[in-house]
Write a structure and sequence with these properties.
By secondary structure, chain A is of the alpha+beta class. By secondary structure, chain B is of the alpha+beta class. Chain B has a five-stranded mixed beta sheet, covered by helices on one side. The chains are: A alpha+beta, B alpha+beta.
Chain lengths: 804, 160
């Protein structure tokens, strides 16, 4: 390899990135290459599974092969005897101490939150549930020992279908029945909207179950030095996890340190308090030794919470000119066997998003959460909002088809116009800013919409076996999960503020500490940009610390595109406080009054003179201070929390062109255009990367991915060979552009971008496929739109049975 | 237990290994080479890709004993003396990584694909990386990075 080595040292990366930038240029908005990259690219990483401690033991779990059964006998003594095995326990051994995994979002009065032991004690309710564990000197010995555990089950009936689960006489997943909760929301006169409506569209869509599949499998390392514990976990939520682990295990919070080291992707799947985290902690306590658990992929597919899984029944009433009168949504949401951290809240996050960017007179939303004997569902990439956006965007296309209108035109007639912001929607949210016309016009131009429509018509006329389909999706999302007041109204079990702190070191360098916990989003780079501007210091002089509760001592972590909109602003506020302190210090050092100082480009200058001190010089002055007056402290540090008044509402228009081979059912994405409006942009490179990844996932839901259970409740898609994740060869290049309507709910005007691509893309792709097939009388293809499903639809119009 | 000799990133090791020990576990757990991560157990994801005698392999599908007498290069040994390989640099410049978990394997696969086709088309790059999955990037920037890396490597080879 050496002959192709350039001899460029890794550390030079950061310096090379700032060449040719004039001094004083704003950092925010600049396409900075990431500070994070050098370590990740050279393998100097701290994935949890890379960590090791002296005397560390390996934990492995025995998992239920049955979807539903009573445990009649369990004997772990055979495992204990094997070489290298230190201990083995069953759920029964742990019954008294293991507590119950928490659910923090009791969405309704009638909610049933079943007891959820980390290891099953007497009954298993999904395939993969932990029933016993072994602790051995290495993973090979632990795997051997699992086979020596003797366990007997008495099978109980599996409950897999939500409609059947709700039917009278259905076997019960829990004593209290299979209904977890029901919620109904009404706004406007829905009956009047549907009465004598010229057009009514009535459709049922299935949001298939997805497996999040972050590339890094989960891992947990728990260590103790007596009565204090440190747990490293591949988690998105070290702070929430710390509180919850303290509550569940009874270990006092101040004796518990949680570290999220490098985390290899999350997408919501690591927004969880898992059985394995609780059990590793308890095992470290019991054995007085460090223990580690590392998930295998097939174990992960069974036991990382799944996403989506809804049956959506949607009715839309409209005028003959396409204007919407009313929308009625009735959901069944599969909870799986238990309610995990925010399981019941996920479908509710979609409740105020079904009406999307459209004006209407009436809206009704109903949702029933259903228990089944499957892995629980919970937050996954967009969490509730992709489902809602899919539903409404599919129905809008059906409305267009019914009225023989262009699907873009039907949207135009209904959406909120750019001069109508702020606008309070029928579901009660106030959208602060946006410009749907601008984003759509730009997307149409970039896409070459008219030309593609002409080509489509031509192919139709010629009876080309390869038909062209065009799909549009105009979306908004409610993101930046924060406003504590609004989360409180939704019964969410915590506030939504975020914490940031800033400390200037004696040499003038800056440490920023954030309560958010990144796992690929590039916070270190973006937060450096924000702090560099706010303090007037060089980008390279800032470092960002996160993900360790001993350092980042407060926070609400990273999910729901909240990091920048809430956490980034907390950092900005902390910087402003530091600047206030620096002004007082400058006044003392420069022997003037604070009012005589003007601040520019990182320096305080005595008005009308050349005398000045940079903020970095002042940091040193604070360190060397001997004679500070009353009220001026010897420190340039501060912290702040931020809790915005409102969510933020990115929006955009995605357009997809597909070629559908009517002879084979093959779908090929020919082009994909996305114009997103995520407000002000801190780092365009990072925004673009996030949108790319989101679109890839949305396309994958449309075309490839589905968690499949058989009739007995066995997961058939336990490996990456069975669960089809798209590779580079399966996806096209995406064409991206942006419009910019700054948010009004935060001082930077930022909106959040993590989930936008996923939310928008799935309906764009499916709309395109249906558009290609509509002349054949097809108005739906169930996701994922595999060649087989498309082909079957073409043969006999037979969609897979969608019962309701 | 078989004894093997293997050179990893320029250092020669002699190890007693169980016949069932996977190369990736030898690297990660015995030799401390944790730069190579594991993403699956079915050889589908490519996260564990390393060079074995100059060709990329998924180290989760190679037994340690099969590496006896071989030379392994991991992401940690790719540059020399703390330097970066042009492909690593290209990934940085094109923002071709986010969480970075797939990245070592991607870089290895990318370098290997250029052995046969030093100036690959977009199509060829996408096909060539089919065995390496990324969940964060959507691949657009990875494809661009491989292009850029190819150019840089071509330059480095032709200008001594
Ligand atoms: S870990 Fe080797 S291919 Fe996935
Ligand atoms: S960068 Fe996260 S999986 Fe590729």
């Amino acid at each position: 390899m050496s002959e192709i080595d350039t001899g460029m040292v890794a550390e030079q990366i950061e310096q090379s990135d700032q060449i040719n930038e004039p001094a004083g240029t704003s950092e925010v908005g600049r396409p900075r290459r990431r500070k994070e990259d050098a370590r990740l690219l050279t393998g100097r990483t701290q994935w949890t599974d890379n960590l090791s401690r002296p005397g560390m033991l390996q934990v492995m779990f025995l998992r239920s092969p049955m979807a539903h059964a009573r445990i009649t006998r369990v004997d772990v003594s055979g495992a204990r005897e094997l070489p290298g095995v230190v201990a083995a326990f069953s759920g029964q051994d742990f019954a008294a101490e293991q507590g119950s995994l928490p659910c923090a979002w009791p969405v309704s009065e009638d909610i049933v939150i079943p007891d959820h032991p980390p290891m099953a004690v007497s009954e298993v309710r999904y395939v993969g549930e932990a029933v016993a564990c072994v602790i051995a000197t290495d993973r090979y010995r632990a795997a051997d020992a699992l086979e020596a555990i003797d366990i007997e089950y008495e099978p109980l009936p599996a409950v897999l279908d939500m409609n059947e689960a709700l039917a009278d006489g259905s076997p019960k997943v829990h004593e209290a029945g299979n209904k977890a909760f029901s919620v109904k929301i009404n706004s406007g006169d829905i009956d009047a909207a549907f009465r004598d409506a010229p057009v009514v569209i009535d459709r049922t869509y299935i949001q298939q179950r997805l497996i999040p599949s972050a590339m890094e499998p989960r891992a947990v390392l728990a260590d103790t030095d007596g009565d204090a514990f440190t747990i490293s976990s591949s988690t998105q939520i070290p702070h929430v996890l710390r509180v919850m682990l303290a509550v569940v295990t009874g270990i006092p919070e101040h004796k518990l340190r949680v570290i999220a080291p490098d985390v290899g992707g999350g997408f919501g799947s690591k927004l969880q308090v898992t059985a394995e985290e609780v059990l590793c902690l308890l095992l470290a306590r019991k054995l007085g030794r460090p223990v580690k658990w590392t998930e295998s992929r097939s174990e992960g597919n069974l036991t990382v919470h799944h996403g989506r899984d809804q049956i959506q029944h949607i009715r839309l009433a409209a005028e003959a000119d396409g204007r919407i009168r009313g929308l009625q949504v009735d959901l069944l949401a599969d909870m799986g066997a238990y309610l995990m951290l925010v399981t019941p809240g996920i479908p509710l996050l979609g409740a105020s998003m079904f009406n999307a960017i459209y004006k209407m007179d009436a809206y009704e939303f109903g949702c029933t959460g259903v228990f089944t004997t499957k892995m629980p569902t919970d937050a996954y990439r967009g969490a509730g909002r992709p489902e809602a956006t899919f539903g409404i965007e599919r129905v809008m296309d059906e409305l267009a088809a019914e009225l023989k209108m262009d699907p873009v035109e039907v949207r135009r007639r209904n959406w909120i116009k750019h001069d109508e912001f702020p606008y309070t929607t029928i579901s009660g949210l106030t959208y602060d800013s946006g410009n749907y016309e601008a984003a759509t016009d730009r997307a149409l131009a970039l896409f070459g919409y008219d030309k593609l429509r002409a080509e489509q018509a031509d192919r139709r006329d010629r009876g080309d076996p390869v038909q062209l389909g065009i799909g549009v999706s105009t979306y908004t999302e409610m993101c930046g999960l924060a406003p504590s007041r609004m989360l409180g109204e939704a019964n969410y079990g915590a506030g939504g503020w975020e914490h940031g702190s800033v400390r200037m070191l004696p040499t003038g360098k800056v440490e920023v500490i954030t309560g958010t916990s990144p796992h690929g989003q590039g916070h270190v780079t973006s937060w450096s940009q924000i702090a560099a501007d706010a303090l007037g210091v060089p980008f390279d002089d800032v470092t960002v610390l996160h993900g360790d509760t001993a350092i980042a001592h407060k926070g609400m972590d990273t999910y729901g595109s909240r990091s920048l909109v809430v956490g980034g602003i907390a950092v900005l506020k902390a910087c402003e406080k530091v600047k206030d302190k620096a002004r007082k210090l400058a006044a003392h050092v420069l022997e003037c009054s604070p009012e005589d100082l003007e601040y520019a480009a990182g320096a305080f200058k005595v008005r009308g003179t050349d005398t000045q001190k940079t903020i970095q010089e002042l940091a040193y002055a604070a360190f060397t201070a001997h004679d500070l007056p009353e009220g001026v402290e010897a420190r340039l540090d501060s912290d702040a929390t931020f809790d915005p008044e409102n969510y933020s509402f990115p929006h955009g228009t995605h357009l997809c062109a597909v070629e559908v081979d009517t002879e084979t059912g093959m779908v090929k994405i020919r082009s994909y255009v996305a114009v997103d409006d995520v407000g002000k942009v801190v780092n365009p490179l990072i925004v673009e990367g996030q949108v790319h990844g989101g679109i890839a996932q949305g396309i994958a839901q449309a075309l490839f991915e589905e968690a499949v259970y058989d009739a007995e409740g066995n997961l058939l898609t336990t490996t990456m060979a069975d669960y089809l994740l798209p590779s580079a060869a399966d996806l096209p290049a995406f064409q991206l552009d942006r419009t910019e309507s700054p948010a009004t709910s935060n001082p930077l005007g930022v909106k959040g971008v993590g989930e936008a691509g996923t939310i928008a893309s799935t309906p764009a792709v499916v709309n395109a496929i249906v558009d290609a097939l509509r002349p054949r009388g097809i108005h739906d293809v169930r996701m994922p739109c595999t060649p087989e499903r498309v082909w079957r639809a073409l043969q006999d119009g037979a969609l897979e049975g969608v019962r309701r | 237990m078989p004894r093997i000799t293997v050179t990893v990133d320029g250092i020669k090791y002699e190890e007693d290994v169980e016949p069932r020990l996977l190369l990736v576990h030898l690297l990660r757990e015995r030799l401390g080479k944790t730069g190579t991560p594991v993403g699956c157990d079915t050889s589908n994801c490519g996260a564990c890709t390393v060079m074995l005698d100059g060709t990329s392999v998924k180290s989760c599908s190679v037994l340690a004993v099969q590496a006896d007498g071989c030379e392994v290069v991991t992401i940690e040994g790719l540059g020399v003396n703390g330097s970066m390989h042009p492909m690593q640099r290209a990934f940085h410049e094109e923002h071709a990584l986010q969480c970075g978990y797939c990245t070592p394997g991607m870089v290895m696969a990318a370098i290997d694909l250029l052995r046969e086709d030093p100036e690959p088309s977009e199509e060829a790059i996408r096909q060539g990386l089919e065995g390496n999955l990324c969940r964060c990037t959507g691949y657009c920037n990875i494809v661009k990075a491989v292009r850029r890396g190819a150019q840089e490597m071509g330059r480095a080879v032709t200008t001594p």
